[in-house]
Amino acid sequence: MPEVKLTIMVLACAVCAAGATLRLGIIGTDTSHATAFTEILNNEASPDHVPGGRVVAAFKGGSPDVESSAARVDKFAEELRSKWKIQFYSSIAELCRHVDGVLLESVDGRVHLAQARLVFGAHKPVFIDKPLAATLEDAREIARLAADAGVPWFSASSLRYGEIADTMKFADAKGVDTWGPGPLEEHHPLDLSWYAIHPIELLYTLMGPGCEEVSRAAAPDSDVIVGRWKDGKLGTVRTLRPYGDYGAVVFRPQQIVQSRPHATDSYRPLLVEVMKFFESGQPPVPNAETLEIFAFMDAAQRSKAEGGKPMRLR
């Protein structure tokens, strides 16, 4: 892998030379993240402002068969045009010629592989917003293409850097329960990837990688997913439908710690990590851990299909 590391170093040096403000492009304006991230990066007067990069370009995208995409893509695109004077391009290839790094924001995980393929071909570092993909196979193919091209990428939920994650990481944790919204979207084969990825990533943030087996009990208004880690620890995720608050309980040898109700969450800490990534070329979340999260959801999907039977991670 020496040539891959060399390419990553070249990319990192190219985008952070002389402390220049990085030109960033957004792919997909069908999520509120497109406008929220632009506000944080471009508005220097905002208390949440993150310096170092500025959104200058966008590709609208959109998925007509996903309601939350079709109903919002034009609205958010217009806000980027009118409020932030963002230049729109008719293709991803054209956008990539005008930016140093890419925020892949398309709300539909099914299109991420095809869109990321074009970004990797242009050799631009990319943050891929949730979900990384709609299947484990697509997630692994994204990782393979990135490695072949020598292009750095990472993907993460903002919960990885929120209040719960910041205050509840304990080296002596014996087990963790997390919960959060888990609405489903019919077009995503890996159904937990649509929204439940947030409490699942929170579980991984507090537990770390190393899960070997998953079982899932599914009901109309909730799922309970239990993972068994290789050291014998158990981690549990409860999804809430249609929506609900986020939370966690950490079981320590002499203490049980619960997150406070309505813990605060902000996109700013995530974007701080995104900017560090663009400047260094080093993903703050190991790509292998991100892929394990998808293997966890894949095992949960197979468990659901088999009536809750435990499934090994593939």
List keywords for this structure.
single chain; 314 residues; alpha/beta; Rossmann fold; Dihydrodipicolinate Reductase, domain 2; seven-stranded mixed beta sheet; 13 strands; disordered N terminus
What would a concise description of this structure say?
The protein has eleven helices and 13 strands. It is of the alpha/beta class. The model is unreliable at 1-10 (pLDDT under 50).
Strand-helix topology:
Blueprint: H1 2-16, E1 22-27, H2 32-42, E2 53-59, H3 67-70, H4 73-84, E3 87-88, H5 92-96, E4 101-104, H6 112-121, E5 126-128, H7 136-149, E6 153-154, H8 163-167, E7 175-181, H9 197-207, E8 211-219, E9 222-229, E10 234-240, E11 247-252, E12 255-258, H10 268-280, H11 287-305, E13 311-312
Parallel strand pairs: 1-2, 1-4, 2-3, 4-5, 5-6, 7-10
Antiparallel strand pairs: 7-11, 8-9, 8-13, 9-10, 11-12
Can you describe this structure?
The chain is an alpha/beta fold. The protein has 2 domains: 2-155, 3-Layer(aba) Sandwich (Rossmann fold); 158-264 and 296-312, Dihydrodipicolinate Reductase, domain 2 (2-Layer Sandwich), CATH 3.30.360.10. The protein is built from 11 helices and 13 strands. The protein has a 7-stranded mixed β-sheet with strand order 12-11-7-10-9-8-13, with helices on one face. The protein has a 6-stranded parallel β-sheet with strand order 3-2-1-4-5-6, sandwiched between helices. A hairpin with a 2-residue loop joins β8 (211-219) and β9. α7 runs antiparallel to α11 (287-305). The longest helix has 19 residues, at 287-305. Mean pLDDT is 94; it is low at 1-10.
